[in-house]
Amino acid sequence: MTRDSTILEDERPLWQWSATAIARATRAGEITATEVTEAALDRMEAVNPVLNAVVESLADEARARAAALDADDGARGPLHGVPVTIKINVDQTGHPTSNGVAAFADLVAPDDAPLVRHLMAAGAVVIGRTNTPEFSFRADTDNPLHGRTHNPWGRHLSAGGSSGGAGAAVMAGIGALAHGNDIGGSLRFPASANGAVTVKPGLGRVAAWNPSQPAERGLLAQSMSVQGMIARTASDLHPAMEALIAPDPRDPFHVPLPWRGAPLDGPIKVAVSRDDFGFGLHPAVATALDAAASALSDAGYAVEDVDPPLAFETGEVGYRALLGEVKALMGPDIATHGSETLNAIFDAYFELFPPFEGTDLLRAFAQRSHYARAWSLFLEDYPLVLTPFLLRPFFGAGRDAEGIDGAREALGHAHWSFAMNFTGLPAGNLPTHVADLLEGPQPIGVQIAGRRWREDLVVDAMQAIEARIAPVCTALWDRMGRTAPEPSPHPADRGSGT
């Protein structure tokens, strides 16, 4: 079988190939979708017992899908034969949308969510469904239904949340792409924890709806929650996100814009902020930020130290407003169906970010336009903003469940994350440094925010950084090959699983 000469120079196993390389080779007939799918399934079988990232294997469906793709002589999509995973809080026909909640374990989806349709239309092969915390509302991934997802870097680190299964899976080599979603950081937390790359799309960019949902989500949830992809390299986000942004009439507020916007004149200006909001910036995070800024400058970007407006206030008001809506609309379900651990975590969240209620909540909803306008005006001058993501290295597994101090470390300083959801702006995350800390090595991610509906600019900037700072996946795979932790116990053997 003839293969692309650039691939011949790289004898890595198929499960390590990028989505871009897989799609190029399968479309050209140099490898088959079946070969790629079997490699991904073999990798899943080898490492998932340790990680518990994929909680529902779709091996049989994936094999049938790959065989059908190989037999079809028609047009081949941009993700032809690429193995992907879907998070268990999104509908996929015939599979439960449990959202990590035992009471919803039998909530079987009657139809596919828009993003599942779009990935399939692009030629992707879904190999499994990934873990999430209860109600997808923690910065860590653990639940009584499926148990804990572990970070492939080691058990000194949380896998992040809520798309922790997705982040751990893609970095461990279980699929080249992983679906996730983000209402306050749920794409970017796992990317930062596991060393992955993602872009949280802006409001309206990706059509979203679950056919199984019994009622519409709250207004702020509709405005802050978005669907996206987690990858190992920024280059893979271009074809993945271009496929994902296709229209679907079931989302009446989807914005039907092309992936690529108009080119900008001259060097693109990047504002770099090291604002720590008085919490302190860890030296490892400062190193990662400096590395990213230096790489962008070397790539020809005009990098300046400038703080965007109202960053802390945007995040603070935004998260307090979101928790106000959650308390009013989801509070009864969380109290009834959530574990004691989850309810205790929410008590800590409510102490850290007192939820707005009543008229104050309505005022916060209205104030959202004020913050979004201030950011939009700033982004006219600086189309990209480079910031820390978290102000310190990632926390340990279960840290958010260790009272108010644990919740504060996990979530209490994440204003750079919350601000992007409240304003509806795109924001990417990628690792630019691996810190050798006392607890063990860990990737350190930075955030790049961008103009509204210009996710392409964010991904381009992350690509420019990657051309100068290598992705961390190879170092991770080398580490995984040298360590062999025991498989996770089955949730039934773990008591509550929290």
TrEMBL record:
- What GO MF terms are annotated? aryl-acylamidase activity
UniProt cross-references to Pfam families, sorted A to Z: Amidase
Matching SUPFAM superfamilies, A to Z? Amidase signature (AS) enzymes
Q: InterPro entries attached here? A: Amidase (IPR000120), Amidase_dom (IPR023631), AS_sf (IPR036928)
**UniProt superkingdom:** Bacteria
What Enzyme Commission number(s) apply to this enzyme?
A: 3.5.1.13
| UniProt domain Amidase: residue ranges | 35-458
| Top EC class for this record | hydrolase
Task: List the keywords (alphabetical).
Answer: Hydrolase
Q: Which NCBIfam families match?
A: PRK07487.1
Similarity comment text for this entry: Belongs to the amidase family.
**What's the protein name?**
Aam protein
- Gene name for this UniProt entry: aam
